[in-house]
Design goal:
724 residues, mainly beta, five-stranded antiparallel β-sheet, 4 helices, elongated
Length: 724
């Protein structure tokens, strides 16, 4: 097979994440002496680790390996293509997302093909495990890709839209591609999109092709103008040049005309694997449908075979063997396997009910039927009389965190699990933490590289030794979690609630101390590493709706301040200054303000103010880096969201990244090397230097199940975070 790069190592079979059983009983381990230590042991995450020595209870974690992360559909599948050997499939969804399913047994996740809204798609698998993909994009141009055995994607060739296409068809083996152009020429291309041979003939105006399983024969379909059920079928042979000569594309025999009552589409007309028979849906008769069978290399009249199908639903068909045709509908009734030699019918499992796309989102080849079912893919092994549904159990990422070393990332999903996995590269280690399936984690933070803090939707707070899923500490609040902050210098955690009260906990490797309630009605608060100029001992700040700023020391919070004490601590923002959107660990204020003519970003360093005109004026959130040298500005433009990273001293923009959807969370890694974003359509970890994605997760717990999940049609209809 022709390649543009060296052959890559074969990709091993993907190991599934193993479900962890919930703990039979959970012991709360709290060590007040360790938790009350305000800094010494907490700054060094290894200090006091010996005291952890296997204590705590929880499920036994099973570490598994993961390979290049995939990405599920975030909208319903409306187009399916399958390779001639039935081993791989391509799908498109209703918002134009394209996915390659490199294996249909559930062992590998689908991956993104970077073409939005393809009009037509084709693929072929190679002997080395690679897949060649060809698509006609939304502009009518063509693109050809190779997806290697390790699932790295390489563009191979392209055809400009000023020579628009009806279709690109990768021939079996993946070395050549047939192109049907809108000038009605048929051109044989190599995978670079270089033309090898062209066939054109006056008054020959085909609109689609059907390819035989060996790629040596194909049929061109030319519908009659004004009558979509009548068409001419012309057989072709693809010949390989002798002694290195040019290949040939030539007609074989005369065209055959078929006349049926049902419009001929990709799912109502099919070519046999040997290229000699064409079967098309004809007309209903009571509770049966007639199928018309035409032999392309004989002059004999078409024959008819009938199949029991509801008359009100147009069936879909395709060859799954040399002379076996599978006929199915979208209403959940049985499919039928028809043997065209002896005209026998055999019952097969129903295709999934799909009243969105009317069952048209399907393809059949080599004993396999692949059909869209919402965001999931239905795979029917016709010969084995078995089926499976492939997809992701969860998409909506609530929270993401990067470990202090930058080696690990944790993902938390709506009503789903928490995963910790190695960061960077195309494969690594993954650990799944136990989670209550009806609640799920809404916030995650690393205490250190060995311990992870999680908060579930009900407000339950847990400290895990995540490598073995040992639960070493528990606490809780009354839900309605708005934000979670952790300050490693002092070993304190701040939980903000939507009711404008907060809880501060001291955290050590053995558990939590607290909570210390901060009831000052602040709508924004945070933690400090070294206090401020006026409050050098403060570890926390808060800002209420009256623009009153307060600072708290750890001793004050421990002492159970009275309401009067809290009110007395408040100091209004000085006249002429604007309430900040954020305050960093060192007390510097960040925000946007109106300067009389336009909006501008500002950073207040205490002794001087740095400002810069904001190009858009739509900054809704600012997230300073741990060092304070940079900050993320979140831009909200209607339903679209993007990020920009700025230098705190100059306010110059370093890079930007469009997430496309509202973000559930934007966080920096503790060392400032990464920016992580969680959203309903997935999560991404970006390199803080240039904004390039380091790792993405768009869908978690890819699985194969026997029954369709009730969430398959709960599509988000938003582009995946992995498509940015």
């Amino acid at each position: 097979m022709h390649r543009h790069h060296q052959a890559r190592a074969r990709w091993g079979a993907r190991c599934h994440s193993l479900l962890l059983s919930a703990a039979a009983s959970i012991a709360l381990v709290v060590a007040p002496s360790a938790c009350r230590n305000s800094g010494a042991n907490v700054e060094d995450p290894t200090a006091g680790a010996a005291a952890d020595g296997g204590e705590g209870t929880g499920s036994q974690a099973v570490s598994t390996q993961w390979h290049r992360p995939g990405a599920g559909h975030t909208s319903n599948i409306d187009l399916v293509a399958i390779s001639s050997d039935g081993k791989a499939a391509l799908t498109r969804d209703q918002i134009g997302g394209t996915r390659l399913w490199p294996k249909l047994d559930g062992s590998e996740e689908p991956i993104i093909i970077p073409v939005q809204g393809p009009q037509q798609m084709s693929l072929a698998t190679g002997d080395d495990g690679a897949v060649i993909v060809a698509v006609v994009d939304a502009s009518g141009g063509g693109q050809i890709f190779e997806v290697a055995a390790n699932r790295g994607l390489t563009p191979l060739g392209a055809l400009a839209p000023f020579q628009p296409l009806f279709g690109l068809y990768v021939l079996p083996g993946g070395t050549q591609v047939l192109g049907l152009f809108r000038d009605h020429t048929i051109r044989l291309l190599d995978t670079d999109a270089a033309e090898l041979v062209v066939f054109e003939e006056r008054q020959f105006r085909p609109s689609s092709l059907r390819i035989a399983a060996d790629g040596k024969r194909f049929a061109a379909v030319t519908p009659k103008v004004g009558n979509p059920g009548t068409a001419d079928l012309q057989s072709f042979v693809v010949g390989q040049g002798k002694d290195g000569g040019k290949p040939t594309v030539r007609k074989q025999g005369a065209a055959r005309t078929i006349e049926v009552t049902t419009p001929i589409t990709e799912t109502t007309g099919a070519l046999s694997p040997d290229g000699r028979h064409f079967v098309v849906v004809d007309k209903p008769a009571g509770n049966t449908w007639d199928l018309s069978v035409t032999k392309l290399d004989e002059e004999a009249a078409a024959t008819t075979v009938s199949v029991q199908m509801p008359a009100h639903v147009v069936p879909n068909l395709g060859f799954v063997g040399e002379h076996e045709v599978l006929v199915s509908t979208n209403d959940g009734t049985l499919s039928w396997l028809i043997d065209l030699e002896d005209r026998s019918l055999h019952a097969r499992t129903s295709a999934p009910q799909d009243f969105v796309n009317q069952g048209r989102a399907q393809a059949l080849a080599s004993g396999v039927q692949a059909a869209g079912f919402g965001t999931w893919l239905f795979v029917h092994d016709v010969e084995a009389r078995s089926h499976r549904y492939l997809g992701y159990r969860s998409f909506q990422t609530q929270s993401v965190a990067v470990s202090p070393s930058g080696d690990w990332v944790a993902w938390a999903y709506m009503a789903g699990p928490v995963f910790v996995e190695s960061l960077g590269g195309d494969e690594g280690e993954r650990v799944k933490l136990p989670a209550e399936p009806n609640v799920g984690a809404v916030k995650v933070r690393f205490f250190d590289d060995e311990h992870l803090i999680t908060i579930d939707g009900a407000g339950g707070i847990s400290l895990y030794r995540w490598r073995d899923a040992a639960l070493v500490g528990m606490a809780g609040v009354h839900g309605a979690i708005r934000a979670l902050h952790f300050e490693p210098k002092h070993g304190v955690m701040l939980v903000e609630r939507h009711s404008n009260d907060a809880r501060l906990f001291e955290v050590g490797p053995q558990g939590f101390t607290g909570p210390y309630i901060v009831a000052d009605q602040s709508f924004r608060s945070g933690l400090l590493a070294k206090g401020t100029l006026d409050h050098p001992e403060a570890i926390m700040w808060s800002l209420d709706s009256g623009n009153v700023l307060r600072h708290y020391t750890l001793e004050e919070l421990r002492s159970d301040l009275s309401h009067a004490d809290v009110q007395a601590k408040g100091k209004p923002i000085p006249t002429g200054k604007v309430a900040p959107l954020a305050i960093d660990r060192f007390g510097r204020h960040y925000g946007v303000r109106w300067n009389g003519s336009t909006m501008e970003l500002f950073v207040d360093f205490g002794r001087h103010l740095e400002t810069k005109v904001s190009a858009t004026g739509d900054v809704s959130t600012i997230v300073p880096s741990p060092s304070g040298h940079r900050f993320v500005a979140v831009h909200q433009r209607g339903q679209s969201t993007s990020l920009s990273v700025h230098d705190s001293e100059t306010l110059e923009e370093s890079w930007s990244f469009a997430t496309g959807v509202f973000n559930n969370e934007v966080v920096w890694s503790p060392d400032g090397r990464f920016v992580a974003v969680a959203a309903n359509t997935g999560a991404v970890v970006l390199d803080a230097k240039d904004g390039k994605p380091v790792q993405r997760r768009c869908g978690i717990e890819f699985t194969a199940v026997g029954a369709p999940p009730n969430t398959a049609f709960n599509s988000l209809n938003l582009r995946s975070m992995c498509e940015g």
